[in-house]
Design a protein that fits this description.
The complex is a heterotrimer of chains A (325), B (206) and C (644). Chain B is an all-alpha fold and 206 residues long. Chain B has 6 helices and no strands. In chain C, 63% of the residues lie in helices and 1% in strands. Classes of the chains: A alpha+beta (325), B mainly alpha (206), C mainly alpha (644). The structure holds heme-A (HEA) (2 copies), dinuclear copper ion (CUA) and copper (II) ion (CU). The site of one heme-A (HEA) has 34 residues of chain C, from helix 5, helix 6, helix 17 and helix 19.
Chain lengths: 325, 206, 644
C-alpha cells in the first residue's frame, strides 16, 4: 500500500510541477500568493495520495471473489483512529489558515509612499486617474516598476472586478462602496486587465491594457500627459483619457484595442452610409446604437459619452479621428 | 394538510395503510406547523437582515432615521398593535371554548379574531395611503414597505386559515377531543402577532 | 390542518370525489389544468390592471407586474388546482364531508398514474427522478451548446447575451431542478421504507411539493420566450445588474421561489416523518445514515431556503415597485444581496452533497459487507457540517468588497469544514478495509465519488485560503471546483443511488455491463473535461465569458471535445435505464443482501410498504456480526417468496 501511495504521490507531484499552473509572477503580491499556493499544494498532494493509496489498495486486496458470500470482520470503529483523523486535519487546515492570514495582511499593506490610482469601471470600459499627479487621466493603465500602487475602485453602474492575472490581485468595484487593492509590479512589460465579474453583454471584452515601465519612463509619461496630453491636438488627449483607446485601434494614437472596430479609415465607414465623417463620428459617440459597425455588437460601446464628454471635446474627437485639423 | 398522518397516528381502522408507529409525543400536524413557523421566521429574518444592511452596515446611511422630512406614524401603528394583541386573546378564548365544548364561544371567538384581523389590515392600508412617501422614495421606504408589507401578507394568510376554521365551526365540526383545525390556525395567528411586535419595535420605535 | 373527526377516511389519499362522476372538463387532470391555468392568468391580469386603473397609475397594463402576478404566480396555482392538488383540502375547508377514499390516487397501476397527482411516496419518488433527469438533459444540452461556442475564441454561433443566458439557464436547471430535487426524489422513495413507515407524514403535501418542480423548471425555460431573451446574470443573479436586465430575469426570480417552496415543504415533510413515524425500536442511533443525512439536509433547507426567497424578492421589488434596496444613490446597499443570497446558497451546496454522503455510506457498507466504520461519528460529523455550514457564507465574497475583518474568521471556519468532511472520507476508507468488496456499478460510482470529491474538496481548500481566492476567484478555477464537487460529487452519488435502488423501484435488474461502461466513460471524460479548467483559470481566464484571449484556444477546444464525450456517456445511462425498466430480468427482492428495511419487502414494495409495522431490534449495518438482526418483519417479508 505504501508503494501505491508513493506512486500516486509521485504522479500527482509530476502533474503539479511539470504544468506551469500559475502565470509567471509580475508582482510582489503574486510571489506571496505562490508561496501559499505551494504550501497548500504540498499538503493536498499528501492527502490525496493517502486517500487514493488506501482506496486502490483495498479494492485490489479485499475484492471478493464472485462466489464469495461471506461477510467482513465486524469492526465498528476505533477511537484512536477516529480522534487522529479529526485532530490531524484540523491542525493542517489551521496551518494553512495562519500562513494565509499572514500573507493576506502583507498583500493588503501599501507601504510608505504608494502611488494612488483611481479606477473607474463602467459598462464596459476602464478609466484611470492619477490624483497625486494633477489628476492625469488615461485609458491605459501605466505603472512604475517596483513601486506599490494603491488602486481605489469605483463603479458607476453595476459590479465589475479588477483583475490583472499576472499580478494576482483581484477586487470588485461595487457601486456605492469604495474598495481598494494594492499591487507592486516587479516586471516590465505589457499585461492585460480583465473584468472578472459578470456585468452584462460586454463583460467578456471588458479589458484594458496595463503597461509596466521604469520609474523614469513613468515620470516622463506623466509629464507628457500633464502638458495637455503632449500630442499635437486636444482630440488625442481625450481619445486616450476617455477610454476610447481601450477598445479601438487607431494608428495616430498608437492604440490597438480590439473590442471596437479599428478607426483608421472611419471616413470609409461613413461613406458607406453616405454621411460626413465628422458628423458620423459625433453620432457614433453620442448614440452608438444608431449605426452598428459590421461584425460588432450593439450595447458594448458605452452610451454615456454623450453626457460625460462636452460638445467641444466630442468635436475635438471627431476632428482627431477624421484627421481634419 | 395531514388527515393521513393523524389517522396513521391514531389508527384508521379500515383498509388502507397499517397504522404507523407514533414515535414521538408531539402530533405530526403540530410539529409540522412549528417547523413551518420556523421557516416563516427565517423569511422575516432575511427582511430584517436587509433592514440591518441598509440602515446599519451601509456606510452612507442617513444618521436620522427616517431621513427628514419623512416620519413613521408611530401612533396609528401603536393602535394597530393593540388591536392585534387583543385578537390573540380572543383566539385563545375560541380555543378554550371548543375544549370546554362551548360552540357559541368558539364561533364568537373566531369571528371576533377575524374582524380584528381585518381591522388591522384596513388600518395599515389607510396608513400606507397617508404615510406621505411611497416605495420609490429611497431605501428607508423600501425596508419600511418591505417589512410591514411582508407582515401584512402573513396577516392575510392567518385570516384565511381562521376563515376555514370558522366555516367548519359553523358547520358543526370540531369537538373537545378533536380540534386541531382550530389549534393550528391559532398557533399561526399567535406567531403573526408576535412577529408584528418585533416589526413594530424595529421599524417604528428603534 | 387536521381532521380528527374524519380520522377514518383521514387515511385516504384521494382527491375526495371519485373522479369518474365528473365530465372531462371538471375531472382532475390536464384538461382542467389547462383552462384553470388560462383562467387564473386572466384573473391576475385584471386584478393588476383593475388596481392600477382605480389608483390611477399609468400605464394600466404594466406587463412587468402582470407577468409576475398573473403569469408566474396565479396561473401556476390555477394549473395545480386543475390538476387536483387541492381538491381534498377544498372539500375539507368548506366543511363538506370528505369523500370516503377509494385510494384512487395511491400507488401506480399503469404508466398513466405517474402523470396524476399521486400521493404514494414511492410513485412520487420516481416522478421526482424522471422529472429531474429531464431537466438534467436539457441543462446538459445547454452546456453542450455553449461549450461549442467556447471551442474557439471570438463569437461563432450566438451573441454574448444569449451565451450568458445559456450559462445561467444551465446552472439554474442543474442546481434548482436537478441536484436538489433528485436527492429529494431518492429520499422520498427510500426514507419511509427505511423507517418502517407506511408513507410520508403528509402525502398530499408531498404530492403538491413535487408538482411545484415542473412548474419551476418550465418557468426557467419559458424565459427564452421572453422579449430580451432568457435571464443572463448567472445563477447568482447579482444585483444591481439583475434588476436592470430584460424581463426574462423575473422568470428566474419567481422560478427560484417555486423550487424553494418545493424543497421547503419536502424538507418539512421529511423532518416530521423522521421524528414522528419511526418504527418501534428505531431509535435515532439505529437509523440508517441515509436517513440521518436527509434529516440534517432537511434542517438546512428549512432554515436557509427562506433567505434566497428574500433575496429574489428584493431584486424583483427594485424592478417592479421601484424600491431601492440595491440602489446606492437612494441609500440602498448593494452587498446586502450577496450576503443574503449566500446565506442560503452556501448551505445549499451542502444540501447538494449531504444526501449523497448518505447514499454512499449505505452502498460502501453493504458492498464491502462490513459495518460502517464509526457510525456515531458519521452522524455527528453531518451535524458538524450543518452547524459550520452556516458560518461560512462570506467565503463567496472574499473579493466582493465586504468588511475586511470578516475575511480571516470566515476563512478559518471554511477551512474547518474540511475536518468533519474528512472524518467521513476516512471512515469510508476504513469501512473498505478488510471488507469483501463487491465491485458492481453502484460501488464503482461510490468509489469514483470518493476520489473525485476529494479533488473537488481540496480545490475548495485552495479557495478558502483568502490570498489564493483573491487570485482564483471568478476564474475557471471556480468552474473546475464547481464541477468536481457537483458532478464528481453529487451527480456520481445520484447515479450510484439510482443503480442501487433500481431493482427495488422497478422490480427489475439493470445491465451490469452497460452500468460499468457508463461509469468508466463518465469517469474518464469527466476528468478530461474539467481538470484542465483548473489551469486555464489560474493562468487568467475569467468565468462567464463568451469570448477569451487566443492563448486559451487549444485547451478550450480539448475541453469542448471531452465535454461531448461526457454528454455521450449519459446516453448509455438512459439506454440502460429505459431498456432494463421495460424488459430487464426480474430482480431478487434483496439482490445486495442488505439489512436496511427497504430490502426486506418485495420489489417493488407493497402499496403500503409493510403489512405489519416491523420491530427494529438492532443497528442497520451489522454485517458479519453473528446472529445480529436489524428488524423483525411479518407479512411484508412473507411477500418476498411469493414475489421472487
Ligand atoms: C456540492 C457542492 C459543493 C461542495 C460540497 C463544496 C465544498 C467546499 N467549497 Fe465550494 N463551491 C460550490 C459548491 C460546493 N463547494 C459552488 C457551486 C461554488 C461556486 C458558486 C458560484 O457560482 O460562484 C463554490 C465556491 C466556493 C468558494 C468561493 C470561490 C469564489 O467564488 O471566490 C469557496 C471559497 O472558500 C469554496 C470552498 C469550499 C470548501 C472549503 C468546501 C469544503 O466543504 C470541502 C471539504 C472537503 C475536503 C477538504 C475533501 C475531503 C477531506 C479530507 C480528505 C480531509 C483532509 C483534508 C484536509 C486536511 C485539507 N467553494
Ligand atoms: C450539478 C450541477 C452541474 C452539472 C451536472 C453540470 C454539468 C456540466 N457543466 Fe456546468 N455549471 C454548473 C453546474 C453544473 N454543470 C454551475 C453551477 C455553473 C456556474 C454557472 C454560473 O457561472 O452562473 C456551471 C458552469 C459551467 C461552465 C462555465 C460557463 C462560464 O462560466 O462561462 C461550463 C463550461 O464548460 C460548464 C460545463 C458543463 C458541462 C460540459 C457539463 C456536462 O457534465 C453536462 C453533461 C450532460 C449532458 C450533455 C446532458 C445529457 C446527455 C445527453 C442527452 C446525450 C446527448 C448529448 C450529446 C451527446 C451532446 N458548466
Ligand atoms: Cu465589467 Cu465584467
Ligand atoms: Cu460556499
Amino acid at each position: 500500500m505504501i508503494g501505491i501511495g508513493i506512486v500516486v504521490g509521485i504522479l500527482v507531484t509530476l502533474v503539479a510541477v511539470l504544468i506551469p499552473w500559475l502565470p509567471t509572477s509580475a508582482s510582489r503580491e503574486m510571489d506571496r500568493i505562490e508561496l501559499v499556493y505551494w504550501f497548500a499544494t504540498v499538503m493536498c498532494i499528501v492527502i490525496f495520495a493517502l486517500v487514493m493509496a488506501v482506496l486502490i489498495y483495498s479494492v485490489l486486496t479485499f475484492r471478493a471473489r464472485p462466489d464469495d458470500e461471506s461477510d467482513g470482520p465486524p469492526i465498528h470503529g476505533n477511537s484512536t483512529l477516529e480522534i487522529a483523523w479529526t485532530v490531524v486535519p484540523a491542525i493542517l487546515v489551521l496551518a494553512i489558515g495562519v500562513v494565509s492570514a499572514v500573507v493576506l495582511s502583507q498583500n493588503s499593506s501599501a507601504g510608505p509612499n504608494p502611488l494612488n490610482v483611481k479606477v473607474f469601471a463602467q459598462q464596459f470600459a476602464w478609466r484611470f486617474v492619477y490624483p497625486d499627479d494633477g489628476g492625469v487621466k488615461s485609458g491605459v493603465l501605466v505603472l512604475p516598476l517596483g513601486r506599490s500602487a494603491r488602486f481605489q475602485l469605483q463603479s458607476v453602474d453595476v459590479i465589475h472586478s479588477f483583475w490583472i492575472p499576472d499580478m494576482g490581485q483581484k477586487q470588485d468595484a461595487v457601486p456605492g462602496i469604495d474598495t481598494s487593492i494594492v499591487v507592486t509590479p516587479t516586471r516590465i512589460g505589457v499585461f492585460s486587465l480583465v473584468c472578472a465579474e459578470l456585468c452584462g453583454i460586454g463583460h467578456s471584452t471588458m479589458r484594458a491594457q496595463v503597461r509596466v515601465v521604469s520609474q523614469e519612463d513613468f515620470a516622463a509619461w506623466l509629464k507628457e500627459r500633464k502638458g495637455g496630453g503632449g500630442e499635437a491636438e486636444p482630440g488625442a488627449a481625450i481619445f486616450a483619457s476617455a477610454g476610447c483607446s481601450g477598445c479601438h485601434a487607431f494608428t495616430p494614437a498608437g492604440s490597438n484595442g480590439a473590442i471596437g472596430p479599428r478607426l483608421d479609415d472611419i471616413a470609409v465607414a461613413a461613406g458607406k452610409v453616405g454621411k460626413d465623417p465628422a458628423e458620423y463620428v459625433r453620432e457614433a459617440i453620442v448614440d452608438p446604437a444608431k449605426v452598428i459597425a459590421p461584425g460588432f455588437q450593439n450595447g458594448v460601446m458605452p452610451s454615456t459619452f454623450g453626457k460625460t464628454l462636452s460638445a467641444a471635446e466630442i468635436d475635438a474627437l471627431a476632428a482627431y479621428l477624421t484627421g481634419s485639423k | 394538510m395531514s388527515a393521513h398522518a393523524e389517522a396513521v397516528a391514531h389508527g384508521g381502522e379500515h383498509h388502507g395503510p397499517p397504522p404507523a408507529n407514533q414515535s414521538s409525543r408531539i402530533a405530526p400536524t403540530v410539529l409540522g406547523m412549528f417547523l413551518f413557523i420556523g421557516t416563516e421566521a427565517m423569511l422575516f429574518g432575511s427582511f430584517f437582515a436587509m433592514y440591518f444592511f441598509v440602515r446599519v452596515v451601509n456606510p452612507d446611511a442617513s444618521a436620522i432615521w427616517p431621513p427628514p422630512p419623512f416620519a413613521f406614524p408611530k401612533f396609528v401603528a401603536g393602535i394597530n398593535t393593540v388591536i392585534l394583541v387583543t385578537s390573540s386573546f380572543t383566539m385563545h378564548w375560541a380555543l378554550q371554548s371548543v375544549k370546554r365544548n362551548n360552540r357559541r364561544g368558539l364561533q364568537a371567538g373566531l369571528v371576533l379574531t377575524i374582524l380584528m384581523g381585518l381591522a388591522f389590515l384596513l388600518t395599515q392600508f389607510i396608513e400606507y395611503a397617508h404615510v406621505g412617501f411611497n416605495t420609490a422614495d429611497g431605501a428607508f421606504a423600501s425596508v419600511f414597505f418591505g417589512l410591514t408589507g411582508l407582515h401584512g401578507a402573513h396577516v392575510l394568510i392567518g385570516l384565511l386559515l381562521l376563515t376555514f376554521a370558522a366555516v367548519r365551526a359553523f358547520r358543526g365540526h370540531y369537538s373537545p377531543e378533536h380540534h386541531h383545525g382550530v389549534e393550528l390556525p391559532g398557533i399561526y395567528w399567535h406567531f403573526v402577532d408576535v412577529m408584528w411586535i418585533v416589526v413594530y419595535v424595529t421599524i417604528y420605535l428603534l | 390542518m387536521s381532521v380528527m373527526e374524519h380520522a377514518s377516511h383521514g387515511a385516504g389519499h384521494g382527491s375526495g370525489t371519485p373522479s369518474h362522476q365528473r365530465g372531462i372538463l371538471m375531472r382532475p387532470g390536464f384538461v382542467r389544468a389547462a383552462w384553470c391555468f388560462a383562467l387564473f392568468f386572466l384573473i391576475g391580469l385584471y386584478l393588476v390592471a383593475g388596481i392600477r386603473w382605480i389608483a390611477g397609475w399609468d400605464p394600466v397594463y404594466d406587463w412587468n407586474i402582470i407577468v409576475i402576478v398573473g403569469g408566474l404566480t396565479l396561473a401556476p396555482i390555477g394549473f395545480l388546482l386543475g390538476l387536483g392538488s387541492f381538491d381534498y383540502w377544498l372539500y375539507w375547508i368548506s366543511g363538506r364531508p370528505t369523500m370516503l377514499d377509494d385510494h384512487a390516487n395511491h400507488g401506480a397501476k399503469t404508466w398513466k398514474d405517474y402523470f396524476k397527482v399521486n400521493t404514494d411516496h414511492k410513485v412520487i419518488g420516481v416522478q421526482y427522478l424522471v422529472t429531474t433527469f429531464v431537466f438534467f438533459t436539457i441543462g446538459g444540452l445547454m452546456a453542450m451548446i455553449f461549450r461549442a461556442e467556447l471551442a474557439q475564441p471570438g463569437m461563432q454561433y450566438m451573441d454574448t447575451q444569449t451565451y450568458n443566458g445559456l450559462v445561467s439557464m444551465h446552472a439554474a436547471l442543474m442546481i434548482f431542478v436537478f441536484i436538489i430535487p433528485a436527492f429529494a426524489g431518492l429520499a422520498n422513495f427510500a426514507v419511509p421504507l427505511m423507517l418502517g413507515a407506511p408513507d410520508m407524514a403528509f402525502p398530499r403535501l408531498n404530492a403538491l411539493s413535487f408538482w411545484f418542480l415542473p412548474i419551476a423548471g418550465t418557468m426557467f425555460l419559458a424565459s427564452f420566450l421572453a422579449p430580451g431573451g432568457a435571464f443572463a446574470t448567472g445563477w447568482t443573479s447579482y444585483a444591481p445588474l439583475a434588476s436592470e436586465q430584460p424581463i426574462g430575469q423575473v422568470f428566474f426570480n419567481m422560478g427560484v421561489q417555486w423550487a424553494g417552496a418545493s424543497s421547503i415543504l419536502t424538507a418539512l415533510n421529511f423532518l416530521v416523518t423522521i421524528i414522528t413515524m419511526r418504527a418501534p425500536g428505531m431509535t435515532f442511533w439505529r437509523m440508517p445514515l441515509l436517513v440521518w443525512a436527509n434529516f440534517t439536509t432537511s434542517l438546512l433547507v428549512v432554515t436557509a431556503t427562506p433567505f434566497i426567497a428574500g433575496s429574489q424578492f428584493f431584486v424583483m421589488f427594485d424592478r417592479v415597485m421601484h424600491t431601492s434596496f440595491f440602489v446606492p444613490a437612494e441609500g440602498g446597499y448593494v452587498l446586502g444581496y450577496q450576503h443574503i443570497f449566500w446565506f442560503y446558497s452556501h448551505p445549499a451546496v451542502y444540501i447538494m452533497i449531504l444526501p449523497g454522503f448518505g447514499i454512499v455510506s449505505e452502498i460502501i457498507s453493504v458492498m464491502s459487507r462490513k459495518p460502517i466504520f464509526g457510525y456515531r461519528l458519521m452522524a455527528i460529523s453531518l451535524l458538524g457540517i450543518l452547524v459550520l455550514g452556516f458560518s461560512v457564507w462570506a467565503h463567496h465574497m472574499f473579493v466582493a468588497g465586504m468588511a475586511d475583518w470578516l475575511r480571516v474568521p470566515i476563512m478559518i471556519s471554511t477551512l474547518l469544514i474540511a475536518v468533519p468532511t474528512g472524518v467521513k472520507v476516512f471512515s469510508w476508507l476504513a469501512t473498505l478495509w478488510e471488507g469483501r468488496i463487491q465491485l458492481n456499478t453502484p460501488m464503482l460510482f461510490a468509489l469514483g465519488f470518493i476520489s473525485m470529491f476529494v479533488i473537488g474538496g481540496l480545490s475548495g481548500i485552495y479557495l478558502s485560503s483568502v490570498p489564493i481566492t483573491i487570485h482564483a476567484s471568478d476564474s475557471y478555477f471556480i468552474v473546475a471546483h464547481i464541477h468536481y464537487v457537483l458532478f464528481g460529487g453529487s451527480v456520481l452519488t445520484i447515479f450510484a443511488g439510482i443503480y442501487y435502488w433500481f431493482p427495488k423501484m422497478t422490480g427489475r435488474m439493470y445491465s451490469e455491463r452497460l452500468g460499468k461502461l457508463h461509469f468508466w466513460l463518465t469517469f474518464v471524460s469527466f476528468n478530461l473535461t474539467f481538470f484542465p479548467m483548473h489551469w486555464v483559470g489560474l493562468v487568467g481566464m475569467p468565468r462567464r465569458v463568451a469570448d477569451y484571449s487566443d492563448r486559451f484556444a487549444d485547451l478550450n477546444l480539448f475541453v469542448t471535445i471531452s465535454a461531448f464525450a461526457l454528454g455521450a456517456s449519459v446516453i448509455i445511462f438512459f439506454y440502460n435505464m429505459i431498456v432494463s425498466w421495460s424488459r430487464g430480468p426480474i430482480a431478487d427482492p434483496n439482490p445486495w443482501r442488505a439489512l436496511t428495511l427497504e430490502w426486506q419487502v418485495s420489489s417493488p414494495p407493497p402499496i403500503f410498504n409493510f403489512d405489519e409495522i416491523p420491530q427494529v431490534v438492532g443497528g442497520p449495518y451489522e454485517y458479519g456480526v453473528p446472529g445480529a438482526r436489524h428488524a423483525i418483519l411479518t407479512g411484508g417479508g412473507a411477500k418476498q417468496e411469493s414475489h421472487a
